[in-house]
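Summary for the steering committee. One of the milestones for this cycle was to obtain a three-dimensional model of the protein with adenosine-5'-diphosphate bound, which we needed before selecting residues for the alanine scan. The sequence and ligand used are listed below.
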Amino acid sequence: MAEQKYYQKEIETMPREEMRALQSEKLVKQVKHVYENVKYYRDLMDAKGVTPDDIKSIDDIHKLPFLTKADLRDAYPYGLLGTDLKNCVRIQSTSGTTGRRVVAFYTQADVDMWEDCCARAITAVGGTNEDVCQVAYGYGLFTGGPGLNGGSHKVGCLTLPMSSGNTERQIQFMRDLHATILCCTPSYAAYIGETLKEMGLTPDDIDLKAGIFGAEPWTEEMRRDIEKSLGIKAYDIYGLTETSGPGVAFECEAQAGMHINEDHFYAEIIDPETGEVLPEGSKGELVFTSLDKEGFPLLRYRTRDICVLSRKECSCGRTLIKMSKPMGRSDDMLIIRGVNVFPSQIETVLIKEGYSPNYLIEVDRVKNNDTLDVYVELAPEQFSDTVKDLAIKEKSLAEAIKTMLGINPKVHLVAPKTITRSEGKAVRVIDKRKLHD
Ligand code: ADP
Ligand code: ZN
């Protein structure tokens, strides 16, 4: 097996009508099963006056009630379990980015399905049994490591289960064992690229050709930065513990949006304020229904991730619907002086202006006024500048950010290596207002 374009061709290139029929068949079965086995969700359906008989096809999905993170907290730990605990073989948990941990259960069939999704992602970036796949996502309760590890096995890659951390050793193994595919968070990929340079090495000293990076928001500018520092093509991958983990959606050779594995996860976009389903092409909150999960079968789960869905034809030949890069979740959005700000917007400006993706955003409230401070790390070659030059640079960067956001930040250019690097999901924002409230 050398070049193989798709992992499950029949599904990945399935005509739309056939896909809808498959989704309908799975949904009808899943709703009935959940209604009969998950009391928590049955109560929600009863309260809405919906019975399994009302769900005859995928077109009826909007009749079902939503599930939210608050429901997951209420039902913790076993309330949304879809089968007997003795049928489950695995537990994974969210990384707790937003402070609320979720515990998800998997049967063996769930693990298989999840790993197939990751295998589709690896195959889509050109992975075959001739590749060496270095998995530098954390292993453990976090879904990143186990998910890509399983996908890599399924594709038949030689898997290097490095987990995250110990960056110099990562690079040494990468070189000695000729890793060709790297899987980790984009912030860790950037850090690996930086370390490579510090070790006096260049992309020519490694054999990497592709990277599969996800689990946190990252910008196109960051993609180009990583591609350059590691000499690879960098692809996005998306997922969440509530639906399984990474592999819910993945990027193909077109590098323009991620194909959703919609035979398993049905996607809708809703208005986050009203809950109304929005037409294709609208920006809104992504909602997922697990069509065939057994252990943790969430129906209409509100992810809080903001993005756009598109069915435009893709050059790779896949017919799976695509989602745009989520610009961050609704919880990440900062409201500063009444203006909506996503950290990713600031990242875009920084990289465009020639700075590193090592930054920290600090928001506070002084005398009822919101303040925005952006700390940006200088590269060693930028640091030798005089104090006067630095002040000019700070001012010009503040201007560029103001043009993007419409509000004036205070920019602080700081010495190399003063901002903590991330080996997993990066922490970019400190909102001190929450501490006062
Ligand atoms: P936590 O909610 O604690 O971070 P997870 O590890 O399950 O737990 O993370 C899932 C979340 O990570 C998603 O809901 C999304 O906000 C974010 N995420 C995952 N992949 C991507 C990606 N490729 N781009 C942007 N955000 C992503
Ligand atoms: Zn494609």
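Key point for the committee: The chain is about 30% helix and 25% strand.
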